[in-house]
Amino acid sequence: MPVPSPDCENYLRRHLANPFLVLELAPKAGRSELERQGAKLLAMLAAGLAAAGTYATPLGPRERTAEMVREALAELRDPARRLVHEWWAHGLAGRIPTPRRRFPPPPE
Amino acid sequence: MGTMMHVGIDLGTTNSAMASFDGTTLAVVPNALGEMLTPSVVRVDARSTFLVGRRAFRFLETDPANTRGEFKRLMGTAERLGFEAAGKDFLPEELSAHVLGSLLADAEAALGYRPAAAVISTPALFELPQNHATMTAGRLAGLSEVTLIQEPIASAIAAGWRADAEGLWLVYDLGGGTLDVSLLETRDGWLRVVDHGGDNFLGGKDFDNVLTDWAAARLAEETGLPPLSRSNPGHRRALGKLKAACEQAKIDLSRLERTAVVCAEVFSDPAGHPVDADVPVTRQELEGLVSPLLERSLGVCRTLLERNRLSAEAVGRVVFVGGPTLMPALRERVGALFGGRVAEGIDPMTIVARGAALYAATVGLEARPPSQEEAIPTGMVLRVEHPAVTVDTEPFVVGRFLPAQGEEVPLSVQIARLDGGFTSDEAEVSAEGAFVVQVRLERHRQNRFRVSAFGRRRREVALRTPELAIVHGVSIADPPLARSIGVARSDDTVLTYFDKGTPLPARRMAIHRTVQRVPAGSLDDALAIPVVQGEFSRAHLNRLIGTLQIRGGRLKRDLPAGSRVEVTLQLDRSGQLHARADLPEVGESFEDVAHVLVPSASPEILEKELGTAQQRVAAAQRRGFAQANPALVRTMNGAADLLAEARAGLEAARGGDADAAARVHRLLLDLNGALDEAEAELDWPTLQSEADQEIETALYWVGAFGSPAEKQLCESALAAAAEARQHRDAAALDRQIRVLSSLRHAAFSRDPSSVFQVFDWYLGHAGEATDPRQAQALFEKGRKAADRGDETALREINRRLDDLFPGSAEDRQRSFGSGVR
Hints:
- The complex is a heterodimer of chains A (108) and B (821).
- By secondary structure, chain A is mainly alpha-helical.
- In chain A, 55% of the residues lie in helices and 4% in strands.
- In chain A, helix 3 runs antiparallel to helix 4.
- The longest helix of chain A has 16 residues.
- Chain B contains 19 helices and 35 strands.
């Protein structure tokens, strides 16, 4: 029997919410970096800052919510789950657009 | 900005307590009698006057018809508790609201105002309906904002507040009615719940009950009268009196070697003469009586460790919570299991309330009600966001200016610590009026900061709320979900939305398809989306916590089978569940707070379920003998013990003990889970044969049409299946069968003739379609597409037909009548 499409869509949805993507962190990020970035994003979302409202994925920008940030933090605090997400994030790494530079480079 | 005040409440089964935290001092709030604990007891007299706490407790044994305790055990059920003299009855949360009201009045006396917001603790194993009831109790008591925290987390926060201990902790919380054992990990100052286990029906009261039964038997021996029995409603009052005396004896035996259960006029003999109790009891006797209960609690600890592949040596610290943990034998036996590594010097009776107050600080829950008298501050509105408590010594502060009309957004800001120890660089304010500044904290204390904003020519701009405070200390992760939550699908599988351990609040959307047609305007037709909680992959083994109904009466046009349904489940910090189903094809939305009542089974239903379980146990035992499987026979003997326990509970339930009914319900769920595992073991030969068949078919199709990657995956699955066979791991073998099946499907779909074969399959099973009319229409189209050899069109028709064949009717019925896949 054919594979039902809702499962495919649900599967894709989960992988585009990879915690490293949501937090905009590299898979090698340490624990304190993770916590600090999470707290920063939560504060920015609470203050309604536009920059925190989306994150980049290989299929274009996606909406980011406080729940997603909290869940991403919880996932990466668990060493076993983090390992799985690291594996996926490595696979996705080459396909994530480079984040915009916040400031122009200094004039030469 | 003034000092914030945070309030935490331990709403216990037997006693409740409240603590306050102002960022520096953590204190337990005494009640009007100067006690740290308030009994969770409510009395309603003939004039409908409420008495709460110690004054009500005094009537518990003498007037049980108008005095109620232990109602926390019934939270989330529809059980109404009656008060004879007043002729009224109340839900457990309504009675809990009175206990909370009493605590809040005590806080008003101590703090000078009645708290408007508080954190209330609930057992880790409380599920959504019970959490919902606790929230309701808080609101009924007048709290405008209530946040819940799981008790073990609260205890750990309180125990670790001044200790920078790294590693694993175990919180052993034995309350009046429940045992919670939680495994927590502290790393880099962050506290995380690794896992928890427990028994919702093992508590200090069970210790009292075994002592009461023993004392009743001794009393019967002495008097020659029949023993008092809990299954006899006529003995309730006498047992209540005896139980109170036993509780006192148990407490005395924590410091004495011997005492007596003393109670005047327990009951009257047939001649009407009062009978007194004076039964001597030694600590050794008590320890012998409670030994099986202690062993049961140690079993919970061991299971938790085994499940996490840990030894007791890995646990660095054990924290005791709850009055019953003061019993020397308990501390000794649990302590011995963990090599004596016990956190000492923390009052186990108030530790939860203290932790809850500290947690109130981490979530920034201000207890002080907004004052009407304070002068309205002037200046530009600044909204600042930052963690209230953090382990990070250099956290970020994010701010956003909200200028009134005519006000100009400042150009830069600077944040300085009030003790003068830190001043940030001047940070630019962005075009949207926001800034992000990193500040530095002094460790283990409250750090107060002032934000200065500057406009053109560096002129300072007045701000309405320029100060903020951040406490440096142990931080905790958001409260994790105790059990996974998902939607039951028509094929008896579960689509998990939130895994166990997901931090709250959480929100997730997933796509489903309907499996039946719902005619517009039909009052009889409804499509069920059952929401279940549990860890089983088969839906029917989990607990139904709510059902979202898509009713035909609300539809403006027919909803055909196979329609897309976008289901969103949202859980708040307290575990309240909101469910929404969007139907984009008909432009309708169905929203509901899932009805969150614990199934309150009547003794008749319980008996029926027990009968079914008994038959399953007997059948499994027979099959175990036939297959010469001694391990399984032993497991089934254990199941038979559970059955016997459930039968005994059923007797008490018939005597009007609603608590016993809930316990039987829980035992039945555990029993069914164990039976399911046993049946899986018995079905092992069938599973092996299925595996052989799947391997053969998969090898054919993947070999013929599979891609190189699929062939490689097939090899890995075959190796994993062989390993699963070697270890007799049914779940692992089942997983590999599924993997092979997926690979087979993928390869099969590459066979040019597959699309025609699939269509033939549907034609051959036309009678099983959920929407015959739609199926017939698709068959017509399919035949035409097949005649003209249009594979693309036929593939799409097959996809739509797939939605009409959602699994067997039995599966759907077992899966709580789910109407989605």
